[in-house]
Amino acid sequence: MERVISGNEAVAYGAMLSRVQVIPAYPISPQTTIVEALSDFCASGKLKADFVKVESEHSAISCCVGAASAGARAFTATSAQGLALMHEVLHWAAGARLPIVMANVNRAMSAPWTMWCDQGDSLAQRDTGWLQFYCEDNQEVLDSIIMAYRISEKVLLPAMVCLDGFILSHTYEQVEIPEAADVDPYLPSYNPIFKLDVEDPRSFNAAFLPDMYMEQRVKIQQAMEEAKEVAKQVDEEFGRAFGRRYGILEEYQAEDADVLLVTSGTITGTARVVVDDYREKGEKVGLLKMKMFRPFPTGDVRRVLQQVKKVAVVDRNISFGATGIFAQEIRSALHHHGEGTSVFGFIAGLGGRDVTPQALRDIVEYTKGKEAPEGDIVWRGVKP
Amino acid sequence: MEEKIVIKTLKDTPFLSVSLQSTLWNKTGTWRYLRPTYITRRAPCSKACPIEQDISFYLTSLADGKPGEAWRKILESNPFPSTCGRVCHHPCERDCNRKDYDEPLAINSLERFLGDWGLKEGSLDGRGIPKKKERVAVVGSGPAGLSCAYFLALGGYGVTVFEAMQEPGGMLRYGIPKYRLPRKILNQEISRIQSLGVEIRTGKRMGENFGPEELKPYAAVFLATGAWAEQKPKLPGDDLPRVWHGLSFLRQVNSGKKILLGKRVVVVGGGNTAIDSARVARRLGSKVTVLYRRAKADMPAIPDEVEEAGKEGVEFIFQAAPARIVGKRKAQEIHCLRTKPGKPDASGRRSPVLIQGSGFSLKTDSVVLALGERADLSFLPEGMKRGDGLISIDPWGRTTLPGFFAGGDAATGQGYVSQAIASGKRGAQAIDRYLRGKTENPEEDDREVVTPDKINLDYFPLKQRVKLSSLGMKGRTKSFAEVHQGLSPSQARGEAERCFSCGNCIQCNVCLMVCPDVAISFLLKEGEYLIDYDHCKGCGICAVECPRSAMKLEEEKWNE
User: Fold this and answer.
1) Of A37, A330, B103, B421, which sits 20 to 30 A from B249 (CA to CA)?
2) Residue of chain B with shortest Cα separation from A216
């Protein structure tokens, strides 16, 4: 069924089609309409799930941990400060190997008070052990929620599906909503190996002494590594079932490119237009879209970027005291593996500032015109 | 644990910290120093009820949609639910724990609903009761006598009731007007008692047409002859025609006699007889004024009845007393004096003092004097009477003569129907003990009463008390039709659902749901909860969270 829906509605449809069983959620802009849509689905009986009104995001994710521990498919959604409030439980969810899926509507962190988009909130949670996916449009949002459960439940790690606040969350696009009858065989019900069961009580997550803890961390890292391959298979199967594929990253006009833009989220859509313009003029400009951020697809990134002389990474985020976070990860991935590749790290669009086609053209021109960047960060769109 | 597992390789390391076997071996209950248990406490309504009915027990059944079960529970403690549901002064509602939360439960109306449900749908079958050889005589067929007979019959005794009047019921029939208690209802409730084998002989007045020799065949006697003699302090002019005494006035009206009152009636008194007389006089077409020597708040009459009388147009003059009645050939005028409160009397109430020179008079066509009733015990030997004119009894109705018991207005001096029923019920228990050769008293209910602070109000949404519909004023002044209408089944169920069920577990599952150790389970077959004390750590959440105070926490005495 094709409908024109917002990104947040796409999230809600994705959750409903995934037949989530427990939804503890607390509203926060710009995520609120996800919670509203899901509570409507539950109230009308379209979705047979327990909708739990909680008193904070900390409770929302804690309730997800409880539900998933008991073997239920759990879902929640949040933004910015709400995600930050979940922080300690994010670690727990990953350590307890619970395949919770959460939508994070990217919103810049306060202070100062803000509601608009950047990726500072979710990227600050990059070390918690959650898988992270960034979406370009509303269709990808819906599809990614469904795929996230497949990946999570296979590798037993929680997953975060990120979408840009307002730019996707509150913008309406044409979206193909799959039929439940088609999603059900693609995403069977969740049957964990271990779950809380009063008939067969067990101790969970009891203390590991120093002789055990470290191996358990290694297991999480192994699951992260496995997730890259699992995500590719899941994407391939999704393509066969629904006719749409995304990959864990996407090369667009990347072959033979002299300058390669690297983007994530909605900047990707704008970049496609800019790349097309350059190609029409005969200039070899290409694009690498980063969908998966955790685990970081190091091998694939190397494979693509090693071929390119100049890479222009556009970060809508900053790790204060360091650089843009995608640039940081890419530089790290290329260390010892891409001696001939120069990485330009641009930071643009923080706190919802528009990243226009002209801004991206400026980035391309800057990169073309210099052998190397003037610093580890090149700011774009900042007042003189 | 028998086997120690040693993990040596990364491959052998489990991906999750989870015990590989059940943890039930770990008896965490040994950590407990507080022990939760289930307990049935007493609801304040039940404590306030003279009959000590377990009100919340039967309301739970009604709220569950089982009126039949509720009705059977009522009949275990009260033979007159339809009657009490109409005429009881319902102190249960006064003490209801819901009263400070929103409004007290309409217990009286619910009792009437269940009683009437039983008259239509229910049946009481006494055939299965094992019969005892002794027969008991009951003198008087008012609420005390018939209740005593009912409980004795339930206990298997043969009972004969001697009644002075032509029909059974006592004050229920000859005192209480029909608009409060339709005779069809009364007859049905009495028939149900007779259906248990209780024999009622009417027209048998003690000391007149039957005497002690007729009581000889009986193993025990219960005296419940009521308070039929009227207080008649000397009042000049009280011998004029059209001057009535309250009880005989009511008795004549209730017996169907035509009475000519005239346009105006003055009723003197503040008790139920006065208010009944006033409302009867309104229905006979007169303009009625009630004269009472104390203030409104001092009236012994049921406040609801006073209020209804006011609605029906009865006027009140408080703090005034009659001095004399004057008239040629009949009462025409009543001369009165104002009063003021004086010194407290023996009952603690302040006796009114006449204010000299405050005289006023009321023109009238009839006067009804309702100045109180007392028992006429002329048939009894002096040794069985007390100084205040009542039969001398102990708290269980035993008189000074072995085998003789007494209750009701003649022995207690209490005037409410439910109090009479209670004394009949206690008398039956005492008679049973006596006949079984037991000397100790029956057990008193000394369970702890649930106070409002013990109710967990978070579990109870605010909900207004059910509104009763009543007859319009036009219908009241022209007929003796019943004033208050009964509740519909859905109204009754909705009202029953308001009950906090103080101290009475209704299996709401809160304890089970809040237990963090999953140590409480519900046994379907037994219909009760089971606490797994091997794993209950004694956190106390269940007992504290219980909405209705039906659990208790006690310190474990591990060392004893």
Assistant:
1) B421
2) B15
What token pair was written down for B52? 């000590």
Domain match, A227 and A264 both: no
pLDDT at residue B20, as a whole number: 82
Same domain, A23 and A106: yes
- The pLDDT confidence band at residue B346, using thresholds 50, 70 and 90, is confident
Q: Are B332 and B265 in contact (CB under 8 A)?
A: no
Q: In angstroms, rounded to a whole number, what is the distance separating the alpha carbons of residues A8 and A33?
A: 6
Q: Give me the domains of chain B, ranges plus CATH numbers.
A: 28-40+505-555 (3.30.70.20), 44-123+456-487 (1.10.1060.10), 135-228+379-435 (3.50.50.60), 236-374 (3.50.50.60)
Closest-CA distance, A210 to chain B, in angstroms, reads 13
Is the ipTM higher than 0.95? The answer is no
Tell me which DSSP letter residue B45 carries. H
CATH of the domain at A270: 3.40.50.920
Which of A222, A242, A262 corresponds to the end of one domain? Answer: A242
Instruction: Give the contacts of A21 (CB within 8 A, at least 6 positions apart).
Output: A48, A49, A50, A67, A72, A73, A74
- B19 contacts in chain A (CB < 8 Å): 202-204, 206
Query: Nearest chain A Cα to B520, which residue?
Result: A198
In this structure, are A53 and A164 located in the same domain? yes
Which backbone phi and psi does A243 adopt, to 5 degrees? 80, 15
CATH number at residue A156: 3.40.50.970
Contact between B13 and A96 using a beta-carbon 8 Å cutoff: no
Domain that holds residue A343: 249-379
- Write out the two tokens for B277: 């007389």
CA distance A46 to chain B (A): 27
* A187 and A319 share one domain: no
Nearest CA-CA distance, residue A163 and chain B, Å: 31
B381: Cβ contacts below 8 Å, ≥ 6 apart: none
Of the candidate ranges A21-30, A113-122, A164-173, B250-259, the one whose mean pLDDT is the lowest: B250-259
Per-residue confidence (pLDDT) for residue A37, from 0 to 100:
97
Q: Could you give the number of structural domains in chain A?
A: 2
The C-alpha atoms of residue B361 and residue A247 are separated, in whole angstroms, by 106
